[in-house]
Amino acid sequence: MHRVSDGDAVPDAPIVDLGMPVPGGAFDEHNPPDAALVGDCVHCGFCLPTCPTYVLWGEEMDSPRGRIYLMKEGLEGEPMSDSMVQHWDRCLGCMACVTACPSGVQYDKLIESTRAQVERRHDRTAADKALRGLIFSLFPHPKRLRLLRGPLRGYQRSGLDRLVRRTGLLERMAPQLAAMEGLAPRLGKAEKLPDRALPAGQRRMVVGMLTGCVQREFFPGVNAATVRVLQHEGCEVVIPRSQGCCGALSVHNGREVEAQKYARALVDSFADAGVERIVVNAAGCGSTMKEYADLLADDPAYADRAREFAEKVRDVSEILVELGPVATRHPLEVTVAYHDACHLGHAQGVRSQPRDLLRGIPGLELREIAEAELCCGSAGIYNILNPEPARELGDRKAANIVATGAELLVTANPGCLMQVTTAIQRSGHPMGMAHTIEVLDASLRGLPATTLTGRAVTAPNPVPSNQHTTQG
């Protein structure tokens, strides 16, 4: 079987729809990457300048079309190798290539199928298994994250975090753990949300709200702001207490069975909520929940319910633009750089709505960021599993953000907030950080712009009271 080495051009040989994979090859018969979808790729190269890893390294096998060629080889009988897996693992799953592709290649479906095959069929190293085990025993579990809040706040307030980073010892000994420690936002008080929040005026819609995992425990102010804004705009907000993880991290890392378990549980949580829409304020969660019909398509007990659930899911910016404004926007004299979270812009195609909301605030000036299509390096848990390229991408994104001269960086995903905050710290340039909904909340409440810009981080060892999550 012909192999393609790094740096080689991908041959333009036609790809035959094989049906099922060749026995003995990389993939088994359970949901392999679809050969027909693989065949849609014509190797035109439009994806290359938008692919973060290709931009960093210029290696063909670390581009979308290169990874698709490896899928083709696997379907044709090439065994799954460490090299294959490495190239697939290096993909951030940002889906910028999906946006750029003129042929409509569904790379998102291909990489998710491939990663599920990898998790079932590839034997990872003991260290890799241990790290992934730690991540997935913690992040998709809000109650466990809540238990971590107290010790983490104590660690941050004692100054030990700054000491650990100054020594560089953890980074030398365990770079992945150092990345995890460095990304942790500074924690303020948790905000308790009601089970049901009534609209401020006439009721226009009844919505359910996902509280999330990292969003719920590390960025509680975002959820609280989301409820307030929805109330201002005439929504009754239902927050089921039984809800847990949506399964996004599991889906994006090939943990198919685990993701399906989380999806079923979330569908059950909202089953009797009586809501017209399900609102999400975390881009990665929203993109996964909108795909529940595919995730549970083979489950006869949940297939129809998953489809009905997915049809209700909307990003909070979509809901607010759909409803149109009724609450008064008070001026915010501030310059804002808006960063498109990949799973909002590329995966969901939601780009204009957040910008429309920001432009609707009097006094706010919106500035665009160069290379907006390139991922910041967060990509779920990518910045923990692959800290070096994630850091390069984060620094590149930070430089482009700083170049706008804006006072405030705004985005719509907790992972992006953590990643970009850390990169801005390294840049040494002061800038506030906020979720889109927090900016709108400040305007509706008539708060000064300093409420947001006062969170600016100016140095690698930030003062606790100035970090993102110190509100409420």
List the main descriptive attributes of the protein structure presented here.
single chain, oxidoreductase, 5-stranded mixed sheet, alpha/beta, 4-stranded parallel sheet, 48% helix, 7% strand, Fumarate Reductase Iron-sulfur Protein, Chain B, domain 2, Rossmann fold, repeat
List the helices and strands and how they pair.
Layout: H1 35-38, H2 52-57, H3 64-75, H4 82-89, H5 96-100, H6 107-121, H7 126-136, H8 142-157, H9 160-167, H10 169-173, H11 175-183, E1 196-197, E2 205-209, H12 214-218, H13 220-232, E3 235-238, H14 248-252, H15 256-269, E4 277-280, H16 283-289, H17 292-295, H18 303-312, E5 313-315, H19 316-323, E6 334-338, H20 342-345, H21 352-359, E7 364-367, H22 382-385, H23 387-403, E8 408-411, H24 414-427, E9 432-435, H25 436-445, H26 450-453
Helix pairs in contact: 13-25, 19-21, 23-24
Task: Give your account of this protein's structure.
Helices cover 48% and strands 7% of the residues. Residues 1-8, 11-18 and 457-472 have low confidence and may be disordered. The protein has 472 residues and is of the alpha/beta class. The chain has a five-stranded mixed β-sheet with strand order 1-3-2-4-5. A four-stranded parallel β-sheet has the order 7-6-8-9. The N and C termini lie far apart (60 Å). Helix 24 links the parallel strand 8 (408-411) and strand 9. The protein has helices at residues 35-38, 52-57, 64-75, 82-89, 96-100, 107-121, 126-136, 142-157, 160-167, 169-173, 175-183, 214-218, 220-232, 248-252, 256-269, 283-289, 292-295, 303-312, 316-323, 342-345, 352-359, 382-385, 387-403, 414-427, 436-445, 450-453; strands at 196-197, 205-209, 235-238, 277-280, 313-315, 334-338, 364-367, 408-411, 432-435. It folds into four domains: 35-123, Alpha-helical ferredoxin (Fumarate Reductase Iron-sulfur Protein, Chain B, domain 2, Orthogonal Bundle); 127-183, no CATH class; 196-321, Rossmann fold (3-Layer(aba) Sandwich), CATH 3.40.50; 329-466, Rossmann fold.
